[in-house]
Design a protein that fits this description.
The chain is about 45% helix and about 15% strand. By secondary structure, it is α/β, with parallel strands linked by helices. The chain folds into 2 domains: about 1-205, Rossmann fold (3-Layer(aba) Sandwich); about 220-300, N-(1-d-carboxylethyl)-l-norvaline Dehydrogenase, domain 2 (Orthogonal Bundle). A 9-stranded mixed beta sheet has the order 1-4-3-2-5-6-7-8-9. Strand 2, helix 1 (about 30-45) and strand 3 form a beta-alpha-beta unit. Helix 1 (about 30-45) crosses helix 2, helix 8 packs across helix 10 (about 255-260) and helix 11 crosses helix 12 (about 285-295). It is globular. The two termini are about 30 Å apart. Bound molecules: acetoacetyl-coenzyme A and 1,4-dihydronicotinamide adenine dinucleotide. The site of acetoacetyl-coenzyme A (CAA) has 18 residues, from helix 2, helix 8 and helix 10. 1,4-dihydronicotinamide adenine dinucleotide (NAI) binds near residues 52, 114 and 144.
């Protein structure tokens, strides 16, 4: 495994749209979210190191970024194919990959962690990074459901720690939730807000509460749909059709659960039901547990509530 950051496409001179103090960021985790965050950061002029556990995974992440960029180019450069090509190669050229997050720390201003939704694994990662990163480097997590304060407690830089919660698919969804813990300094928080603007996202602020704003409302709704199915009230297809045509949602709750990943949904619910056992909205779901146990994780594994096998 390579332990240094390597560029996979030759860069062009930066045509950065805007730049704050964040010039270089390290995105850890090149899955659904990490690859989207790396893509948007690079396309808005930032230098990016994307880290994952193996070169195989990173190659898939790069391929996914390439495909997603093609969709952006098709839309934004419909009348300018040359400009589109240049945008694509410049963006790819700003992304390096590595299997060692520690090796990327020296030059990085901001870390965005987007690895598996597990507190112990996130804490272990951040305590290693804390020892390696320069003093000014800001640490953030893209966690869906774990308290930012619990993750930050593994480091000695609580004033330079916050939450940056993006939405899937990152290149399309316009929102970024910016979360501060009591120890986050005003300077750090303002830098995170400015970075959000640089990423061309609309930012909202939220305290470090379970699920922040969107997931605190969205996840109970999605799980309530699964409970309807468990009771045999209606089929996934009918529930999805009802919410799309009756409530104007772009995806129904089962399509969205498959899109988010059933493993991620389970991680969220397990964490909340353990921490808040008195809240009936956070009860585990036997059907969700069964699907995840069978490896049916949604669109990314080829099957969840629906089948995606070709
Ligand atoms: C769990 C958490 O912690 C938080 C979360 O993220 S919760 C999940 C939040 N996300 C959502 O709720 C997503 C809800 N779904 C949607 O908004 C839409 O279904 C969708 C944007 C995903 C797809 O939209 P759609 O109209 O069904 O499909 P599609 O026509 O393929 O895409 C719409 C546009 O987005 C673009 N697009 C979609 N996915 C893309 C991607 N990954 N990269 C780049 N562009 C993409 C398409 O190119 C298309 O562009 P045009 O309009 O110019 O043609
Ligand atoms: N799926 C979604 O819709 C959303 C997820 N999130 C959050 O983002 C995070 C990532 O979620 P996804 O991208 O969906 O997961 P994913 O499963 O698609 O990707 C996670 C990636 O992290 C890598 N990884 C795991 N441990 C690692 C480590 N120690 N070092 C480096 N890489 C490691 C895995 O190999 C994998 O490629 C989670 O905290 C999740 O809760 C936030 C918003 C939306």
């Amino acid at each position: 495994m390579a332990s240094v950051c390597k560029t996979f496409s030759r860069g062009f001179s930066s045509s950065a749209i805007r730049q704050t103090t964040i010039k270089h960021l390290t995105v850890i985790g090149g899955g659904l979210m990490g690859s989207g965050i790396a893509q948007v950061a690079a396309s808005t002029g930032h230098q990016v190191s994307m880290v994952d556990q193996s070169d195989d995974i990173l190659n898939k992440s790069k391929a996914n970024i390439g495909k997603s960029l093609q969709r952006v180019v098709k839309k934004k450069f419909a009348d300018d194919p040359k400009g589109g090509e240049q945008f694509l190669s410049e963006t790819m050229g700003r992304i390096e990959t590595s299997t060692s997050a520690v090796a990327c720390m020296e030059k990085t201003d901001l870390v965005i962690e987007a690895i598996v939704e597990n507190l112990e694994i996130k804490q272990k990662l951040f305590s290693e990074l804390d020892a390696a990163a320069p003093k000014h480097t800001i640490f953030t997590s893209n966690t869906s459901s774990i308290p930012i304060g619990d993750i930050a407690s593994s480091t000695k830089r609580l004033d330079r720690f916050g939450g940056l919660h993006f939405f899937n698919p990152v290149p399309v969804m316009k929102l970024l939730e910016v979360i501060r813990i009591p120890a986050t300094s005003d300077e750090t928080f303002n830098k995170l807000l400015a970075f959000g603007k640089d990423m061309q996202k609309a930012t909202v602020n939220c305290k470090d509460t379970p699920g922040f704003i969107v997931n605190r409302l969205l996840v109970p709704y999605m799980i309530e749909a699964v409970r309807m199915l468990e009771r045999g009230d209606a089929s996934p297809r009918d529930i999805d059709t009802a919410m799309k045509l009756g409530a104007g949602y772009p995806m129904g709750p089962f399509e969205l659960s498959d899109y988010v990943g059933l493993d991620t949904m389970k991680f969220i619910l397990d964490g909340w039901s353990k921490n808040y056992p008195e809240n009936p909205l956070f009860r585990p779901s036997p059907m969700l547990d069964k699907l995840v146990g069978e490896g049916k994780l949604g669109a990314k594994s080829g099957e969840g509530f629906y089948s995606y096998k070709k």
